[in-house]
Amino acid sequence: MRIVLLGPPGAGKGTLANLIKGKFAIPHISTGDILREEMKAESALGKKIKGYVESGALVPDEIIIQIIENRLTEKGAPREGYMLDGFPRTTAQATALDAILKKIGQPIESAIYMETTLPMIVSRLTGRRVCRECGAVFHMTNRPSKKGNVCDSCDGELYQRADDNEETIRKRMDVYLTSTTPIIEYYQKQEKLLKVDGNKESEDLLQELSDEFNENKAAHRD
Ligand code: AMP
Fold this sequence. Notes:
Layout: E1 2-6, H1 13-24, E2 28-30, H2 31-40, H3 44-55, H4 61-73, E3 82-85, H5 91-103, E4 110-115, H6 118-127, E5 128-131, E6 137-139, E7 158-159, H7 166-180, H8 182-189, E8 193-197, H9 202-221
Parallel strand pairs: 1-3, 1-4, 2-3, 4-8
Antiparallel strand pairs: 5-6, 5-7
Helix pairs in contact: 1-9, 2-3, 4-5
Bound molecules: adenosine monophosphate (AMP).
């Protein structure tokens, strides 16, 4: 099961990815998480990309493509199944991804597109809180931690991402509309696009996707 998760910032990709990961036991590869870890570690890469991430701009294609190529081709890389979240974000990245996966004979199987509305996006992003330790995603009102300001599962501190403020959200939406929406058509042409309603609860979406994947499996067996 090799999946790409598509949708605007705040569509709920990270939350859905965590549920899919729990159910299907496949790794969740989030380029945003990888970049934030580099920034936290103050590595050379982290310093290089900080300005882009904090302002809501895209990190240059060549940097992000290299990161993904390493992740997907290094020794011990997950080949049979994974979810890519936040990548690809430009047509150049989508084309590069296909080329990388062609070399190892493991193409993407489905691109799940989470369609949602602007008011939903703003509400989700401004209320989002993330665990500093395990990366679990909460929402102040829709999905609060039972333990208040610490994570339900690991007691890590919950924080608000620096780019989850209204001004940067607007910038990220502009970037999404210009650079990322063409990818939807890219996967549609490849007949890999699976559209889901991003306004629904993640648990309901997980159920829909499980049914879809099971049907696909059955169809391949027939
Ligand atoms: P995310 O956590 O997916 O919302 O990503 C946070 C930020 O990381 C984005 O606003 C970009 O600055 C950067 N980023 C993540 N993935 C990519 C990508 N595939 N291409 C370029 N920049 C990215």
